[in-house]
Amino acid sequence: MPKIIPRSYPENLAQSLVKAGIAPLLARIYTARGISDITQLETGLARLLPFTLLKNAQAMAILLADAIAQKKKLLIVADYDCDGATACAVGLRGLRAFGARADFIVPNRFEYGYGLTPEIVRFAHESTPDILITVDNGIASVEGVAEANRLGMQVLVTDHHLPGDTLPDALCIVNPNQPGCTFPSKNLAGVGVMFYVLLALRAELRSRGTFAGENTPLSPSAQRRERDMRSEPNLGNLLDLVALGTVADVVKLDENNRILVQQGLLRIRAGRACAGIGALLQIAKKDRAKVSSYELGFVVGPRLNAAGRLEDMGLGIACLLTDDSAEAAQMAEKLDALNRERRSIEADMQEAALAALEHINPSDSFSLAMFDETWHQGVIGILASRLKDKFHRPVIAFARAQPGELKGSGRSIPGLHLRDALDLLSKRHPHLLQKFGGHAMAAGVSILEQHFDEFQSAFEAIAQSLLSPADLTRIIETDGVLSAADFTVDIARSLEQQVWGQGFPQPLFDGEFAVQSQRVVGEKHLKLSLSPVADSTNRATFDAIRFFSADPMPQRIRAAYKLALNEYNSKTTLQLIIEHWEAVPSTSSVQV
pTM here? Predict the structure, then answer.
């Protein structure tokens, strides 16, 4: 059973933030997330880490500047998720603005697999590019880069995934997680890495006098050169895409990433997002002016990802590249339809998985590895995530990729670094894994179908060796109990305006409530009226909702909840979103 535990926070640091002008509740929340100085909350672009700290960024900028000057043909090889799509769009928009001859391809996950495979390299070669640029992939593409070199194409790798034992023989690699890179933020998403490469490229082109107005023409030839110069692109125009990819890829929102996300959100709220993001928000009936990181991660991101999961991410990338609002609206409609189809497939897969577990007690194991021949390989990652959340176990869900081969997508829990666990498994059982890669919390793996049972046992043994029984209890961390004065629309609005996400979680509070009324709405949500019982003098009641659960609640509960705003008929009221609840024993000393 999950345990609700309030986060600890250093009271002295919280008080220092209060003295610096931060509201007491926010000061408590911030210090519990590692904020010790008010400057860490600044989100101006001037506080971004400089690109000079990112290994090889300047070297790659020189190569790209030379390629632009020589009019070489550049081809971006994208990944098929939201991070890869936004990284591709950022790369193309930026490179074209700098005068590059650039285009893109994105592998169909069902034909070419993940990353710069030899197959996708040979496909790319048909377009006769001079240089391949990977975005959000490539760090593990040893064979693919070798094939590109054999075919006479140079490869520039931009990635953020963890490298394997051997790096690809690329012309240049930019990855904050590669050996020897001292970039302070190891949490850049793929789109963030591409954005930093463009920052370095702009600086290189500035030094070469590429942009108009940077030098004074002294001769007729110099005057002709001035006329041919380009205006310097504003790379800030790309930050809406950077914010979307960063949030959707669920990378840790450290200080640097929070700046990128906040600046992107400001652009979106001001109505300056690209046509594609605007169209996706519109079809989801979301107000651009009130967009938060939630809408990026759970509204826009899934609609883009649906293209890569079910068909081809080319549609998603095209949506992010167009500047035609009507065209963007048409593509957003297609993406929305794909997302509805994805949800239907996911629901069927989850039902099948839970049915398969009816005769198995997941609490007897430290992990889950599951396979069903009917499962769609584009949706197994979401299925693994749902099962991980339900059972609090590392989960790998497999689908058949081709006859005799299974492709798995895994999600993990704190305490088990999934990519490292797979690496350990590969060393103990060298014949089992055909390939694998990923992060601490998410990874992919391919195996032969005949080895599934053996993999299942081996993965369980690894999980047992790395996890303790205590790790298998889900901990719900909260920001403690709210005072009566904190239940306000203004505080809820203040919290919604902040940047929250992975590693910097949205505030969650807990407290005991009396359930005054409850009813099912929309056939699957529980609408409630709750009264806090911590203060017997406070008789206020608040609307609350428990999404996707219609189970009735007892008269007294302890709830973990978020503060939210509910807007209806032009009226804004406070609403509590119940994330978890448990019955309060009848022996509770708290009196109404």
Answer: 0.89
**CA geometry: angle 329, 339, 412, nearest 5 deg:** 135
CA 368/CA 415 separation, integer angstroms: 15
What span, in angstroms and rounded, lies between the C-alpha atoms of 367 and 463? 6
Q: How far is CA 465 from CA 278, 366, 425, 502, in A?
A: 47, 9, 11, 26
Degrees (nearest 5) of the Cα angle 104, 110, 114? Answer: 60
Quick: pLDDT tens for 249-263. 989 999 999 999 999
Rg of the chain over CA atoms, in angstroms?
A: 26
Which stretch of DSSP H or E encloses residue 573? strand 571-583
Tokens matching residue 384: 């693994």
Would the pLDDT of 137 be above 90? Answer: yes
How far is the CA of 437 from the CAs of 154, 332, 422, 546, in angstroms?
Answer: 24, 31, 8, 36
CA distance linking residue 209 with residue 205, whole number of Å: 6
Confidence class for position 394, pLDDT limits 50, 70, 90: very high
**Both structure tokens of 369:** 């590895």
Phi and psi at 206, nearest 5°, equal -60, -45
Phi, psi values for residue 546, rounded to 5°? -115, 105
* pLDDT value for 218: 47
| Confidence band for 363, pLDDT divided at 50, 70 and 90 | confident
* Helical H segments across 392-451, by residue range: 418-428
Find the angle CA(115)-CA(120)-CA(123) to the nearest 5 degrees. Answer: 160
Q: Report CA-CA distances (Å) from 387 to 122, 369, 425, 471.
A: 38, 10, 22, 16
Residue 225 confidence (pLDDT): 52
323: region left, alpha or beta (phi > 0 left; psi from -120 to 50 alpha) = alpha
Q: Which residues contact 62 (CB under 8 A, 6 or more apart)?
A: 204
Task: Determine what percent of the chain falls in helix, strand and coil, rounding each to the nearest 5.
Answer: 45, 20, 35
Task: Please report the domains of the chain, with CATH numbers, ordered by start residue.
Answer: 51-210+233-329 (3.90.1640.30), 357-472 (3.10.310.30), 477-583 (2.40.50.460)
The answer to whether 10 and 31 are in contact (CB under 8 A) is yes
Two tokens, residue 481:
């109990």
State the Cα–Cα distance between residues 343 and 352, nearest whole angstrom. Answer: 14
| Beta bridge mates, 510 | 560
Q: Are 384 and 396 in contact (CB under 8 A)?
A: yes
Backbone angles phi, psi at 235, to 5 degrees: -70, -15
Q: HSE of 188 in the Cβ direction (CA atoms, 13 Å)?
A: 30
Give kind and range of the element (H or E) at residue 338: helix 325-356
d(CA 192, CA 546): 35
Q: Are 378 and 400 in contact (CB under 8 A)?
A: no
Average pLDDT of the segment spanning 97-103: 97
CA–CA separation, 114 and 583 (whole Å): 46
% the chain with pLDDT above 70:
95
Whether residue 222 has pLDDT greater than 60: no
